[in-house]
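Question thread 4412

I'm putting together a teaching handout and wanted feedback from people who do this every day. The idea is simple: show students a protein as raw sequence, then show them the structure tokens that encode its fold, then repeat with a second protein so they can compare. Below is the first pair exactly as I plan to print it.
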Amino acid sequence: PKLGRFRDLLARVVAGEAGVRGERDRAGMELEKLETDAGMRIPHAQGGVAKAFAEWQRGIPRDETVFAYHLAEPESLAWAVTPRGLEMKKLAGRGELRRRIEEFQRSVLEGKGSSTGNSLTTQLFGEFSYPYRTNPFWTVVIDDTVGALAMSSLPQLENARQYLVESHTVRWLAAAHFLGSRGGAEWRKEALAVADPVYNDADERLGRGVGERGTLQLNRLPGTAQEVKLGFGALAAREWRTSLATGMEATGERLREGAAKNPDVLHIGTHFSLDRERPELLAISLSSVRRPGSVG
């Protein structure tokens, strides 16, 4: 019956009938889920691949959702996985998604409002069921297209006046198998942020006799401190141990010490500088004003 219904909807779309595309897409997703479930019941599907996936899935913390994407033409696929289930849906093709992401990036850089951010949040995350999209921790498995997205600028699903990262802790991974190295360990709930360093002599936070002044003169990034206060305030409300280094405390020494403790969340809100001799590398630009005896 479901296959017959899908074919009927498909014929109506081809005939140009308005208002049935959404129903057709939902019917197609139901069929794909049936095919996936049936495939997992085939004896060969119970072999190494399926067992490895089940083991990997059990290692996901209970308050985390893993989002993964396969971008192709004419349509793409997205998955949301938790320890309790898996959900799949269709997305626009790679080219269309790239166009939307580039449009959103331009609007962010130019400081202009754009509805593209709302549509990207909805398409990439918002169409999944409530238990998947409301987990506080998200891991997003990226490729070159999704990886170019300015995630910190995406609006929330429920409130477009707030950012997505104010309600979720989001991290990026190049491949989902990296999650397997955790062995199912829970989050330790430790977070470190280094943001809003002192970059130039005009910074109002400077005083006389503060120490050695660096040669790097960059514009201040005051918004990064506000971003950290909002995000880490939400983490602290969930009983996380948070450490913030801003201003003259945003130094290489503080970053190295904190990173050595392997925090669950490491947030860096700074400028990045190109290495002219090795242009494939970036340097994290930290406070150019150092206290006596400190290491930059």
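The second pair follows. I'd like the answer to focus on this one:
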Amino acid sequence: LQNVKTIEFQIIPEAAQQSIALETGEVDIINGMSANAVKRFEDNSEFIVESVLGNNVKTIMFNCNEASACSDVRVRQAICYAIDNESAMQGVLDGAGEAAFMFGNETSTDVSTDWNDGTYYPQDLDKAKELLKEAGYENGLTLKLLTYTGESESDLANIVYSFLDKIGIKVEILQYEEALVRTYRRDFTTFDMLIEQRNAAGTYIVTNWYEKLSKTTWDDGLNYCGIADDELESMMDTAYDVNTHTEKNVKAVSDYINDNAYAYSMFSGYNFTVHNDIVKESCLDLDYWLIPGCC
């Protein structure tokens, strides 16, 4: 260690106790503090609040398998047009985040904020209803939304429920512990949509796309959406190859995913680190964990 003799770690799961520990000097720095807890330190000159856009992106992954009504791209697109991701972010994070403009976010080094041109499914309820009509669901339909347990997950599921209700889609929310979700998400007869928290960090966004959308990830030859898209596979191969990894090729994959509505990212939250003046500056890794010896 270059700047201290020892580093002591304390595990304090409760947000209120974290704040008290920082205020009383029991700890000098806290990483991953909630947006609500941060507010009490923002106007306090004795503490420094640092924020950075997190790499976890709240995303709807669609079941595109023939077992689901979401196998029709028009149904998937209708759902995307029904949701206002800025409002969803406000409702879940109280403004402490940024709305998505692609599947993923700009924390990946090969994503350009220039892609944020306002064309990523802006809310349009009339267009959503027309797409449902074209798909044969003029009188609406019922879809199953799979998600994890947790307060923010419940909040987001209910927000999605509210948005889709406006276009005639009734949502049955299926909320389970992580182990059960991991089981059900490979049974494409049990759900139509899945709310995931996508990790977008890393050198290449294509790496993250591969994990979910490549047919080679699982033994059954189906990607996370329950299909195998050979054209997408080829495009991802091109974008990932070091010789053809260009912004044009990466953007082409992003546009293809968006056009086919395989996934719909809604928002990312800020990662907050709060410390006293003993710590001059925090240092985080790609997953936004503290690198203690660097602080």
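Top answer:
Good format. For the second protein you could add a caption like this: The first strand starts at residue 29 and ends at 33. The mean pLDDT is 93.
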